[in-house]
Amino acid sequence: MSTGRDVEIVIPILYYCEKVLGLSTFSGSGVDGRYWLNKINPKLLLVPNSVGDNNYIKAVKYAAKRNIPVLSLTSEGDFDEKKIHEMVWGINKDKIMYEDLTLQWSERSRKLTFKYYPELTDKIGVSGGVGFDRYKIYKFMSRDKFIKKYKKDYKKIICIAGWGFDQLFGDLFEMDKESILKIYGEEQIKNFKEDRLLVNKILKKLIQNNKDILFILKYHPGMYKIKKNTEFVDLYKYNNIIEIQHEENIADCICGSDFLIAYESTSAMEAWLLDKQTFLINPTITNFPRSDISKGSPIFKKYEECQKAIDNFYTVGKIPWFEEKDEIRKEIIKNIIEWDDGKNHIRVGKIIKEFLEKTRNRKIKKTNLINYLKHYIIHIIFEKTRFITKYSFISKIPIKKLRVLKYCHEIYYHNRFEALKIKYYLYLDIFYDKRHIN
Prior knowledge:
Elements: H1 5-20, H2 33-40, E1 45-47, H3 54-65, E2 70-72, H4 84-89, E3 101-104, H5 107-116, E4 124-126, H6 134-137, H7 143-149, E5 156-161, H8 170-175, H9 177-209, E6 213-218, E7 241-244, H10 250-255, E8 259-262, H11 267-273, E9 277-281, E10 299-300, H12 303-316, H13 326-337, H14 344-359, H15 369-384, H16 386-389, H17 400-412, H18 416-434
Helix pairs in contact: 1-14, 1-18, 2-15
């Protein structure tokens, strides 16, 4: 089951801190983060991001108020100049950087931030894309394990990564209408809705006409149960498909397949890092606001082009025009994650070491009794409600906060985080031994 990118980002850094720096670490949920800050009084608060989640923002503000040193990573670091304000501040309505230091993925993103916010010069560093280290360190599910797990028997497997079309409909659209319209505009949203139907028709035809191929339909991680508003609508009825939402992470889906198809997906870069080829399906338009990652894949508009690409791959092992974009892909990877050597978490670890030395004499302020009791009560409620959220029906209730609560309980109270640490630490041991890192 996918555990989410924030967990993936933090674990290798914890390994470095514990094994190399000899530090004691504690990992907890942002939901009751302020309680743990009161209880532990840490020398450092490390968060996966400080702009994308209200719980993280509250914890960072609280830590700063108490003079606890704060270091923030970046969960989504592929900065786009057209969305620079949203990328820098996210849902931080104060537009104040409370943390001591934020680490962005690349020098390109850092320079772009300084262009619009020169006052943040001393607040931002570069770590590389830590979440991408896993592609050089961990082993993912093999094709044999994948088809055995899902009781399928296919020699050809294609992964199709879903896009967030469902965010353009109904309540999901209304919740984030202002920012979506600001980025895309009404005309572009209309085009997206047309493209959704056209992509669906192409995928339907590919699935129907290639019964010897298993298609993994990997829904966008933000998709919430309303499959009719995705490009995968009605594809469930075919025998040669597997639907995956949170049951597997995207890396396992990519590793279990021969190559990746998408309408638009940053997972294309993840496929490249795993030595997999990619192509995109864009039936009408290609010049909408999107990541530069799209420039690294061939783009096809029609079913015939897609079918030809599939046939070509299974005949000679190549998607047409993919090889020709090799230098473009190298530049994209450099611009987005800076380094793809698996050592970005080590760069963060070295920054943490310097950071702790710099702030070691900082006096942490005590909290008052009212604040302590308030956050203790939140912690107790969070802890006790785990007995309710363990039931599967909670996932079907369309309340975002309940979904977040269930996820946090699964990670921190049902031992998934610790289990993942044990699993990943074994891979990290091998990675460090091979490179003589100590």
